Amino acid sequence: MKSLLIFSLLSFTLYASEINTSLLKVHATLFPKTVLMDYNFKKKLYNNKLVLALIYEEHDKASALLLKKKIEAKYQHNIYDISLKIILSSYKKSIKTGLKASSYYLFPSSKKHIKSLVTLATQNSSMTFTYRNEDLQYGAMISTEISTRVKPVINIDALKRDAISLRPILLKISEIYYQGNSINILEYNDKFKLYYV
After folding, report:
1. Neighbouring-strand partners of residue 103
2. Residue 44 and residue 9: Cα distance in Å, rounded?
3. Are 143 and 114 in contact (CB under 8 A)?
């Protein structure tokens, strides 16, 4: 019995993610604003509300709730006179029900779950913002790079795939993830003219 308990705790520890609360504070500010950088964000409102879905594995539910509270504290249920609705949902439930949202925030999960949520977001013409940069390789759209300052990292292939056109201000301050590489948009401006309006 003791060895079963130890095995269970070890398994949970191996698969539990380490969520940085300071990074969640940064994401609470950036995540809602990135949705508004899409030129067509008004078409992605549900009942005139910006619906933000926080998608998590069960072991990250407390972190998802914390992110929700941080977003609510920052924006007081609206951003630039647009009402916010924040939904907490597990990966399994979101995939099973086809959860619709203006944008999805993806907590760490398996490659399969990330890809399933990216597919769901594509079907809904919605953006995906991910906690981990490495999830960009699975088709997620936006993450962040933290070094001496915070920089959004944008998956240019995902923008092309979903025909999303972002405002230039976001592109100018971001690193661009392009076919597995991170590049500076100012150095490769001619490749991405499609996204400058």
Report:
1. 52, 127
2. 42
3. no
Which amino acid does the sequence have at 81? D
Top pLDDT among 11 and 42 is at: 42
Rounded Cα–Cα distance for residues 69 and 46 (Å): 21
User: How far is the C-alpha of 156 from the C-alpha of 33, rounded, in Å?
Assistant: 18
Task: Quote the CA–CA distance of 17 and 60 in Å, as a whole number.
Answer: 7
Structural tokens at position 30? 């950036």
Considering only CA atoms, which of 108, 171, 166, 173 is closest in space to residue 138?
A: 108
Q: Tell me the per-residue pLDDT of 18-53, one tens digit each, with 9 for 90 and over.
A: 889 999 999 999 999 999 999 999 999 999 999 999
Annotate 29-89 with DSSP letters as a single string: HHHHHHHHTBTTGGGG-BTTEEEEEEEE-GGGHHHHHHHHHHHHHHHTTEETTEEEEEEEE
CB-based contact 53:155 (threshold 8 Å): no
Cβ pair 156, 174 in contact under 8 A: no
Q: How many CB atoms lie within 10 A of CB 152?
A: 20
Report the C-alpha gap between 96 and 39 in whole angstroms. 29
